[in-house]
């Protein structure tokens, strides 16, 4: 028993825009339709009075475009308090045994909060089950433990991750794109190649190509995944000793801000200043740079490299201008920096050197790396969520990732001072310190990257500057759509970059 499609669509219209992973907060929802619905628990022969688990793909129209989201829906007659947080709404259903004459009330909710139901995912992967169009997979040579309870991850993220007993982390891709997800593809290839900087993949779930029509409404032919299975979820080894790079960086920034302003307000702090402030991140930033160069080397070995003629650089610059056109229309505050950004893109277009492209991370930032007891581990090779599937899997220049991480140092430096209500003097002093923190860690990261065999960012300043601006423009659109309250963070750091 699940809500009739029209009832579910109505309930979702109010609930979806409140979800962190919903990527359309800047536009009104025009229409919602239910694509596939697959009962995962109790299954056709199961008991009728226990909680139910349904896997549902919904298509959401906003303006002329459709997006497809994956949901795990729980259905119960009685909602325990511990699940209220995920409640989507109540509905009236036919009684399962006696039918329409005896309606019963029920609740539908986000089942990621219900450990009683999410274990079905582990069971499915352990047994390599096939349920309707859903195919559960185990990584070759891996056994999947099933007696584990899940809790949803608390990290800042665009999808939803379930942590199973500190053993596995299973990421449910929320906004689906047809075809193999690059996160799975790259992680499998890098693990196979023995790369020490990625977690082991333990299993995954995909959607059979026959169900692809549920995902392709409104897409062009090139974006429809060409008969491949679509990745729905990926389960990896949980890095229990790990700390998120973002959390580490923010701790360091906090120490830096708290330290005596007379010293920290210098534009180029010394090692002694940093040591006295405590929580210095520069040594980690340098190690992170080195790990990044190693991952780039392994990606090049696993997927190959492509020499791009100089003409391609002009096309790349044109693409950056196009994104800027679009984002300036939706976020007018960006227009203030438009001239400086366009100049950087034009300078890029004038470069005459051929460039070596390869598979890269594609959305590299401090939230995508974890410091563990064995070193830095790189996560989430999914590419930027707002890009098309083709763009996410395309080769690119490795300094694009470097620029992404440089932007992340700028973000971390300004996250704590995004509050608009700070008195002007305080804001100015903190901005100076933010700049100093970012400059120190940017330098350390670039040094580590070049020393470990990566291209030296200092020798490719035009490229790095254009990539940084391009990323900043992307971020402004991302924040407007996903986390409007964060918009001041990239806007402020952009003001600095645009000088
Ligand atoms: N293998 C892992 N072990 C421990 N924590 C992880 C692991 N993978 C991801 N995380 C945590 O989950 C967060 C989000 O992961 P990520 O793959 O970036 O998700 P999303 O694509 O939804 O942003 C990371 O920042 C990290 O804190
Ligand atoms: O990690 P995702 O693949 O979901 O990436 C998206 O979300 C990120 C935020 O969760 C976003 O990153 C931006 O915010 C980060 C701080 O939360 C910051 O470290 C990054 O530098 C900044 O770009 C990312 O852009 C987006 O694609």
Q: Can you put this structure into words, describing what you see?
A:
The protein has 499 residues and is of the alpha+beta class. The chain folds into 3 domains: 5-110; 115-237, no CATH class; 243-498, Alpha-Beta Complex (Aminoglycoside 3'-phosphotransferase, Chain: A, domain 2). Helix content is 40%, strand content 22%. The protein has helices spanning 5-15, 115-127, 182-192, 245-258, 261-264, 271-277, 282-303, 310-330, 338-349, 389-393, 399-415, 424-451, 461-482, 488-498; strands spanning 31-41, 52-62, 65-76, 87-95, 99-110, 130-131, 134-138, 150-152, 160-164, 168-172, 175-176, 201-207, 230-237, 243-244, 305-308, 355-358, 369-372, 375-378. The strands form 4 sheets. The chain has a 7-stranded antiparallel sheet with strand order 6-7-12-13-10-9-8, with helices on both faces. Strands 1, 2, 3, 4, 5 and 11 form a 6-stranded antiparallel sheet that branches. The protein has a 3-stranded antiparallel sheet with strand order 14-17-18. A hairpin with a 3-residue loop joins β9 and β10. The termini are far apart. The mean pLDDT is 90. Bound molecules: adenosine-5'-diphosphate (ADP) and ligand LMANGFYV. The ligand O=P(O)(O)O[C@H]1O[C@H](CO)[C@@H](O[C@H]2O[C@H](CO)[C@@H](O)[C@H](O)[C@H]2O)[C@H](O)[C@H]1O is lined by residues 156-158, 246, 363, 365-368, 380, 382, 384-385, 407-408, 411, 475, 478. Adenosine-5'-diphosphate (ADP) binds next to β10. Residues 15-114 form the Maltokinase N-terminal cap domain. Pathway: Glycan biosynthesis; glycogen biosynthesis. Belongs to the aminoglycoside phosphotransferase family. It is an enzyme of class 2 (transferase).
